[in-house]
Amino acid sequence: MRINDDFSRRAAMHPASNPWVPSPAAGVERRMLDRIGDEVARATTIVRFAPGSAFAAHTHGGGEEFLVLEGVFQDESGDFPAGTYVRNPPTSRHTPASAPGCTIFVKLWQMSPDDRAEVRVPPAERKFSPAEGRPGIEVAPLHSDAREDVRLERWAPGAKVTQVLPGGAEILVLEGDFAESAEQFEPQAWLRLPKGARLEAQAGPQGALVWVKTGHLSEEPRPPAA
């Protein structure tokens, strides 16, 4: 399966035009944003767990990164409420579930094989500060290494957001909305811009809270190892 697999091109997905599809686990549905591979895939996905649903225990050979959008995600290491950011490194193993139900934004098989950083950022630890040289923007760091930078950005109402992206970018709307290339992005809408692109966006009248990852598209994305 291949979805938005040309990483040299701009890609965008919106909830209204991207219906939920069943996963192999009962009660778990997905909105696929980009994907290379079948059930084991390099994938970016929004996943919805019905109350009481779970996946079987499994190992993430290529690592897993996720942000809890709604509800409470659960596994052996604890409960992760909405707003929690998590990185589980390659070869990590868990049994994901949600007694109350939840929705997460998740990226699979997108870490360096030698990445062993386990990251947990609960909502209470998010600290926003003004972005240097970017008026109307506040940033809360989530993770940064030599390959990529992951953060939350808060855009003031009407803020014009311009940035050159040598290593590309992905943006997921969490709250509010913004416009880019005459296209409107509302909560759970996703935008991917290729390396060398330039972001030119404008926040809506209520502003916007967005998840942003930059730098990671410098390398050609690869399918999962066999």
UniProtKB/TrEMBL annotation:
CDD domains, alphabetized: cupin_ChrR_1
Region (Disordered): 1-23
ChrR-like cupin domain segment(s): 9-111, 118-217
SUPFAM superfamilies: RmlC-like cupins
Highest taxon in the source lineage: Bacteria
Protein name: Cupin domain-containing protein
Native organism: Thermohalobaculum xanthum
